[in-house]
Write a structure and sequence with these properties.
2 domains; 11 strands
Length: 434
């Protein structure tokens, strides 16, 4: 394409974006997205980073509207099941739950702790608890809005939770569970050590995990029951998926990523199965998970993601909303495990999606309903993604994902200048895992 053709294409792109851009201020016009969501029973809310306050704040407001106006009753997040389930107990007002949302976030001790242990989630959780008490105070567990972690990094915590549940219920699967946990003990709760032993030295616990998973599945089918049993079932799924993830991670390639995203989809479907015909889920994850992988260069690498897998399922009615910013602040680490820092997010690269949204809105916050856009928005454009590890000085070399925006999302929320998350101190470990 010569420079004149390229300039013409950019002008057409920006012209239509100008026409589609819907400004909003302090959450006004969010009902336009609610209207576009229609009868979807699964709404995916993304984020361009894991450390931006504005993404959490707007997702919370949009989630509240979906809960109150459309009956959504599940919040699934890119977090560990055991830590999130402690918060779930709080928002549902279960016996023995913590006395505040801040306390209930106390198990989010795994780096990056700021991703869920922050004031934005604390405030949203307090709203969820109040809503559940006012709307479903005497209702069943399935009537109340739940908060669940659908990720799979909690190998040891989930295995311990499974054993605790089987001990409590005097289950015949307890002996197999103890054998499975004993297989992991030599690795001292170190994922990398296990990954090397399993992936490179063929010293894995795969057989033990598969056998326990099989037994747990048969019991679940025979004895459908409480949310505590759902928790044990998902913790067992986490153990299986996490074992496979660390076993494949050391070999490189797309397989470990695919294990993780397939796990998140399976966890979500099990939660929805528990809620039954009334299940309607909102998912909070990074754009790289909720935006359809087929609309990016991920597909060329053999990678799938949550957005793609759910859209491919004919039984699901899915609506995906991407989130991004032109410039601002973010919490991140300079390297994995490093102390969290407040970093500056530079202006979007010229010609990127962030640059175009900034120009279309004249520097104000707004949104675009991409499901109503023309094929112009199938043009591939760079779209920024910031992880928990970030270097603002080098983002142009790897932080822009080539994307067909119309194919990746159904709508997009642009927050022009954003601020960093507000992390909470981890108050205390949970006394008893259930």
């Amino acid at each position: 394409m010569n420079s004149n053709d390229q300039s013409t294409g950019q002008n057409a792109y920006l012209k239509e974006l100008n026409a589609l851009f819907i400004p909003f201020n302090e959450m006004e016009n969010l009902d336009r997205i609610v209207e576009a969501i229609g009868d979807a029973d699964m709404v995916l809310l993304g984020e361009a980073s894991h450390g931006t306050s504005d993404f959490y704040r707007v997702r919370a407001e949009l989630s509240k509207r979906l809960i109150t106006s459309k009956g959504f009753n599940i919040i699934g997040v890119e977090g560990d099941w055991p830590a999130a389930y402690r918060l779930n107990r709080y928002v549902k007002g279960k016996a023995g739950a913590d006395s505040s949302a801040a306390e209930a976030l106390g198990d989010f001790t795994r780096w990056p702790t700021w991703m869920w242990a922050n004031t934005e989630i604390r405030d949203f959780a307090e709203w969820l608890k109040a809503h559940n008490a006012a709307s479903h105070g005497n209702g069943s567990e399935r009537q109340k809005v739940g908060f669940y972690g659908i990720d799979m990094y909690s190998l040891w915590e989930s295995m311990e939770a499974v054993i605790g549940y089987l001990e409590k219920t005097r289950s015949p699967q307890l002996e197999q569970a103890r054998m499975t946990y004993a297989c992991f003990e030599p690795y001292s709760r170190d994922h990398q050590t296990y990954g090397i032993a399993a992936g490179l030295l063929s010293e894995s616990c795969e057989d033990e995990v598969v056998e326990l998973l099989k037994q747990m599945r048969s019991r679940r089918m025979a004895h459908p029951g409480s949310e505590e049993e759902l928790s044990a079932e998902v913790n067992m799924l986490v153990t299986s998926s996490s074992e496979a993830y660390y076993r494949t991670m050391v070999r490189g390639g797309p397989q470990s990523w695919n294990v993780r995203d397939r796990h998140m989809v399976e966890s979500l479907k099990r939660i929805m199965s528990y809620y039954g015909s009334s299940a309607k889920a909102i998912v909070w994850e990074h754009n790289t998970h909720i935006g359809d992988a087929r609309a990016t260069d991920m597909a060329q690498e053999g990678m799938v993601n949550v957005g793609q897998l759910l859209r491919e399922d004919p039984e699901q009615r899915v609506f995906a909303v991407g989130f991004g910013t032109y410039q601002g602040e973010v919490l991140a680490g300079s390297a994995w495990g490093d102390p969290v820092e407040k970093m500056t997010v530079p202006p979007g690269q010229p010609g990127s999606w962030e640059d175009y949204m900034h120009r279309a809105g004249g520097g104000v916050d707004g949104m675009v309903i991409l499901s109503e856009a023309s094929s112009v928005f199938q043009t591939v454009i760079g779209h920024r993604a910031i992880g928990v590890v970030y270097d603002p000085n080098h983002e142009q070399f790897g932080n822009y994902v080539p994307s067909s925006m119309k194919d990746r999302y159904d709508a997009f929320v642009h927050l022009d200048r954003t601020t960093a998350l507000h992390p909470l101190p981890i108050l205390r470990p949970v006394a008893e895992k259930v």
